Amino acid sequence: MNRFQLNYANYSIVVNSVFNLSSRKNRKGGVGLAPQRHRASQLSAIGLGKSFGNFEALRSLDLTIAAGEFLTLLGPSGSGKTTFLMALAGFLKPSRGRLEEDGVDITDRPADKRNFGMVFQGYALFPHLSVTDNVAFPLKVRKVPAAEIKKRVGDMIERVGLSAHAHKRPAQLSGGQQQRVALARALVFEPGVLLLDEPFSALDKNLREGLQAEMKRVHRETGTTFVFVTHDQSEALALSDRIAIFNHGQLMQAAEPRAIYTRPDNRFVAEFLGRINLLPLEGCSAIDGRATGRLGEATLSAPTGAAALAGRQSLLAVRPEHLRIGAAGADDNSVAGVIADKIFNGAEMSLQVALATGQRLLLSVPDNSAAAALAVGAETKVCWPVESGFILHDDRNA
Amino acid sequence: MTRSWMRYAILLAPLPLFLVASYVLPFFVVAKWSVTDPEPGLGQYIRIFTDPTVQVVLIRTLRICVIVTLVSVTLAYAIAYNWVFGPPKRQRLIEYCVLIPFWISVLIRAFGWLILLRNNGIINESLMSVGVIKEPLALVRNELGSIIGMTHFLIPFAVFPLASALRQVDPRVPQAASGLGAGRMRIFWTVTLPMTMPGVLGASIIVFVFALGFFITPAILSGGRSVMVAEFIYLQLFQTVNWGLAAAISVVLLVIVAALGALLHKVARLDKLVG
């Protein structure tokens, strides 16, 4: 896979060209190449399922993707996110359920009749065709007149900043450039939906960030519905209007990035996205919208939403960045513990505090704070505002 | 270092020595005959390009080779395509059907075709018994017989490089073409076939080179009525005892094959095709 081994010189050129593109846009007062709005489709999966023999890759999925939305499908490998994307594209025939585009059933419509753009993992460019011919392919298939093909392909190649490389073959381009060809090819026929299967997975981290920004800009400009598969959670949080998290072929939660991070529906989502502390509460009871229970000597509270407490083990969940070391305020939870470990992460310091009940709390504190200076083995108190925690059910034991 | 190198050299020496003794040296003798027999000079080479008898044989050989190459590479492409992309059961079936004849002696296969194709053979007998034809079709003891037998023999030689070329096609590329709106026929003609063109050229050269030197199959299936160049060389050696002409044609043939070999090396690396 030679072509993915970018050297430094190579990717700095690409990154520069990304920035040139945006700066050129700015010089022209934000006009640049006049953004063309595409039509956007709404997609619905209704009871959609896919089995391979006994293996259920996708179980009865119900999800509506709004027109113009940037939806990210996120999950560990084998979670069903790619299966769902392939079913959307028409490359996999679902075993159960239906797919609808703007209310029209498209379950049995073959891939070549769906009119969706797709960017593949590894791009799947036509190796025997030039950049121009790659981008022109979907237009030629649609029998667009030659003069119009020439114009639209030229515009699109300019839009992704590859005019200087239009005559080259994919093998002569860097990974980032190939990725833009794939994007141009998928968007040139103005599809109502763009499907993206881990388009950044083969790229360097630095290059990735530049291209993510560009992807977001393309989404804004075209207004097309984007369905994006990734296993990179920071990518999902940065790009999406909404994130759908999958596990074992099931949709665990679909919500806006902030909502899914701050108020995950279940333990899997809470643990999958970022880091979190989960504390089992004993004798949990709900009063005035607050759940209160005991953890060893301490009494801890958290807002309880609509979540019922009946009979199930309740977990108090709180993100490491909400914890602090020191005396409790008026409306804080507080537990005592011993500093067990310290890990330097650059901007922040990760502390692990061992509690008398056996749990370990994970905190992140600024590296220059007094808390970061505490020695391993020091006794301390950890506290956090009641409002920053939330209650989850332990679905592992349920 | 030097001593271990010497040891390997001694171990490896027999094969190159054998090749030099059995191929290279006799070839120089053959090359010498072509310019000395019956008298010194380029007379035999001039004969190749002027004598009508030789011309007929050369043109016939060329015609048969071109037809055999076109037919067998086309059929082999269809077989290789199904072998690589077909359902597992079909893949297994193709493996047997390609490999088993591949292991059977060329002589036995030629006689097999003779039994099938001759005037009172299975094909003509059954066609006449159901009344499709009155007279037996001339399927063998002519050019057609040679072409059928050679095509059958050479198809596996084309299947392997073509299958190898098809296996190198990233399945996501035709899939992408489908996602971009292309139907199956268009995907084949604009994506799959162009992507495997080096394999097609490689297979064509391999088949053509084999066909050029074919001896037993055309000798048996044409019944001496459409002599190809290899059989012609044999006749010059053992029947008309014109060793000079036989040697000159051999040299010309070898030059052509070497040129095609060099071309093959250029269009598609040989190790990639068979590997």
From TrEMBL, chain A:
<comment type="similarity">
    <text>Belongs to the ABC transporter superfamily.</text>
</comment>
<dbReference type="GO" id="GO:0015847">
    <property type="term" value="P:putrescine transport"/>
</dbReference>
<dbReference type="GO" id="GO:0005524">
    <property type="term" value="F:ATP binding"/>
</dbReference>
<dbReference type="GO" id="GO:0022857">
    <property type="term" value="F:transmembrane transporter activity"/>
</dbReference>
<dbReference type="Pfam" id="PF00005">
    <property type="entry name" value="ABC_tran"/>
</dbReference>
<dbReference type="InterPro" id="IPR027417">
    <property type="entry name" value="P-loop_NTPase"/>
</dbReference>
<feature type="domain" description="ABC transporter">
    <location>
        <begin position="43"/>
        <end position="273"/>
    </location>
</feature>
<keyword id="KW-0813">Transport</keyword>
<dbReference type="Pfam" id="PF08402">
    <property type="entry name" value="TOBE_2"/>
</dbReference>
<dbReference type="GO" id="GO:0043190">
    <property type="term" value="C:ATP-binding cassette (ABC) transporter complex"/>
</dbReference>
<dbReference type="InterPro" id="IPR008995">
    <property type="entry name" value="Mo/tungstate-bd_C_term_dom"/>
</dbReference>
<dbReference type="InterPro" id="IPR017871">
    <property type="entry name" value="ABC_transporter-like_CS"/>
</dbReference>
<dbReference type="InterPro" id="IPR003439">
    <property type="entry name" value="ABC_transporter-like_ATP-bd"/>
</dbReference>
<dbReference type="InterPro" id="IPR013611">
    <property type="entry name" value="Transp-assoc_OB_typ2"/>
</dbReference>
<dbReference type="InterPro" id="IPR003593">
    <property type="entry name" value="AAA+_ATPase"/>
</dbReference>
<protein>
    <submittedName>
        <fullName>Spermidine/putrescine ABC transporter</fullName>
    </submittedName>
</protein>
<keyword id="KW-0067">ATP-binding</keyword>
<keyword id="KW-0547">Nucleotide-binding</keyword>
<dbReference type="InterPro" id="IPR050093">
    <property type="entry name" value="ABC_SmlMolc_Importer"/>
</dbReference>
<dbReference type="GO" id="GO:0016887">
    <property type="term" value="F:ATP hydrolysis activity"/>
</dbReference>
